[in-house]
Amino acid sequence: MRTLRRKAHRTSFEYRDDRSRNLLEVFNHLFNTTVNAHVEEVLRRAVDHPSRRFWVSEERALRVVRAMERDALPPRCNTLKREMYEEIYRRVSHLSAIHPDWPLRRLVWVVVHQEAPKFYLSVSSAHAIVVEEKKRCRIETMRRLSRFLSA
């Protein structure tokens, strides 16, 4: 008898464009202000730079925080994601002590929208995001320029 296994499925990340723009802004700022900047070093500094928010959906963060209340994160969880969820959980616990009447959903929403201490991305992931975002910006610039010239 065959056992039915649930297939993991990936969904598109709803904040991808915002995260990409935020990372590119930080990367460009660091690159322009660093003397003799090597791209890999700038990327390393960019991923460790504070981010505008935690780049995780409120729903996913809520599910993980609920799981963390029951027990720890699974051991196969990515190291950077684990670090991010532990920071979110720490902040939710702190905020819960200040506002014990707030539901967990509200606490998580507030925390996820706070400035994050870093991007929680690997250097290679950040490199791929920066390259893709620069490409998207060039294409958008060309599109605007062609509309302007054809008008």
How would you classify the quaternary structure? Answer: single chain
Return Rg in Å.
Answer: 19 Å
* Residue windows where pLDDT falls under 50 for at least 5 positions: none
Q: Biggest sheet, in brief?
A: none
The SSE order reads HHHHHH
Dominant shape: elongated
Overall mean pLDDT stands at 90
Question: Helices and strands: which structural class?
Answer: mainly alpha
Total number of strands: 0
* Continuous helix count: 6
The fraction of residues assigned to DSSP E strands is under 5%
Helix content: 55-70%
- Between the first and last Cα atoms, what is the distance in angstroms? 66 Å
Please characterize this protein's 3D structure.
With 151 residues, the protein is mainly α. 64% of the residues lie in helices and 0% in strands. The protein has six helices and no strands. The protein has helices spanning 16-33, 39-47, 58-70, 79-98, 104-112, 123-150. The termini are far apart.
